[in-house]
Specification:
The protein is built from four helices and no strands. The protein has 152 residues and is mainly α.
């Protein structure tokens, strides 16, 4: 629909429709053509304007309270969505950290086993080396006692 058609439906000027379009940042669907949602939005705006322009303060207060309640509900919904997203992010971070901790713990355990294995091997080698030294010392003493060196 063209703005001229919408203006004639509501018996307002085209400028009034243009002002409404600009205030609500409404984009045309094609070159100067608007869809039916513009008519629906303007009708709601027009109806609320007529009610507010009437001299009945009770109706104006009801509308104001309704709009306030809608805004508060939207605010609570947005707050809830933000908290949900924060909870999801925290949960993902916690899972990643938990997995990393498990991987690091396993790696430390594996390295500890390797160190313990090499430590045990080193101890065994030292014991064998000491046994060999003792054995060599005994052989040396045996050879020394069996043969007398003549040093003159």
């Amino acid at each position: 629909m063209k703005t001229k058609d919408i203006a004639s439906i509501f018996d307002v000027t085209q400028q009034t429709i243009y002002n409404f379009i600009n205030e609500n940042n409404i984009k045309p669907i094609s070159n100067g053509e608007y869809d039916i949602s513009l008519v629906q939005m303007y009708f709601k705006h027009y109806k609320n304007k007529l009610i507010l322009d009437s001299d009945d303060p009770k109706i104006a207060k009801i509308i104001a309270d309704t709009e306030k309640a809608k805004a508060e509900t939207d605010l609570k919904r947005l707050d809830y969505e933000i908290k949900q997203k924060e909870y999801i992010k925290a949960s993902v971070v916690e899972n990643v950290l938990s997995d990393a901790y498990k991987a690091l713990t396993k790696k430390v355990y594996d390295l500890d086993k390797e160190v313990h294995k090499y430590s045990s091997l080193q101890e065994a080698c030292e014991i064998l080396l000491n046994d060999l030294k003792l054995e060599l010392l005994e052989k040396y003493k045996e050879l020394d006692s069996n043969c007398e060196l003549d040093i003159s």
